[in-house]
Amino acid sequence: MTAFLTLDDIDVSGARVLVRSDLNVPLEDGAVGDDFRIRSSLPTITRLRNDGAIVIVASHLGRPEGRDPQFSLAPVAEHMVELAGYPVTQLPGVYGPEVDNALAGAEPGDVFLLENTRFEPGEKKNDPELAAALAGLADYFVLDAFGSAHRAHASTVGVADHITSVAGPLLAAEVAALGALLEDPPRPYVVVLGGAKVSDKLGVMKSLLPKVDAMLVGGGMCFTLLAAQGYKIGESLLEEDMMDEVGELLASERGSRISLPTDIVVADRFAEDATATVVPATDMPAEGLGLDIGPDSAEQFARAIAEAGSVFWNGPMGVFEWESFRAGTETVATAFAASPALTVAGGGDSVAALRSFGLEGEISHVSTGGGAGLEFLEGDSLPGLVALERWANDA
Hints:
Shape: elongated
Largest sheet: 6 strands, parallel
CATH topology of the largest domain: Rossmann fold
Strand content: 15-25%
Number of strands: 17
Distance between the termini: 17 Å
Number of helices: 13
């Protein structure tokens, strides 16, 4: 298990604390569209505030090319105030004279939000000068952004080269929940994978297949697997360059642990009002477009989830945002929420689906990290965690 210092190991009263949160949320018309990551991050920020720290929050938002106003964290700061009920001062930059001047008169309990870290070209390069400038703002660094811990950026890794660095409670909870699946998951261990592209999940499929009892695959990614087995998939999503690797995985010693849909909900076109028809997976029409797993497959997946000791779910079963193509995801989500097993959900679309069905609160752990969670379960060392481990080893 990963070892790191936590907030319990430092005295933050009167200290400046730089918190790397994950506030990378979708914006719609200049306002926060989904506040899951903000709500997940606030308890750590509030704890530090209540403990008398001067809290300086850092995060990225989106993938801006330079300083782009549409990727400003200003709407996030406003939303934080609405949720938290205390002031959050939006700063005009990541570092520099304006930031220094704003922090000069800070009092214990004040909360500041730096501007988008990716406005700085050195962020993604883990530039030492930017890392040092960020570290110069604070006495302690708290990494609480699990969703960014797999990126070796200045605000996730570089800062830890300069000041005492600890794991925030959210990060620690993520590592504990996912670590339980990685090290000794209660059996049977069932993994449910969906989403559009098998290329995004092939690494975790290869890594987890020897460790799981069943791997249930739906979503757009399932059609590349079905095609690799020789099935006609009509106009459904296909990653042709992945078929050889997928075919080898299915034909491998443990390939029988992978369960694919036996029936599919097909549409005549990719549209919300398209006509939906359920067909056997072995008999998809040449011009049909698979947009959800069928009812028999959904019930089969639900039974496997109900009998599991632990379940990890990443990726919806279909286009759940559209009424005609949401039943597969809803059936799986309902079984997932009702299961007495250890249930861990990861990935933005899975979380969005659970929220849309009102089931988010029924899950053992809802992860804020999509790619980071998958990399962690693959057994990869996340750069952010490695940076924290150095401080634990030196303590």
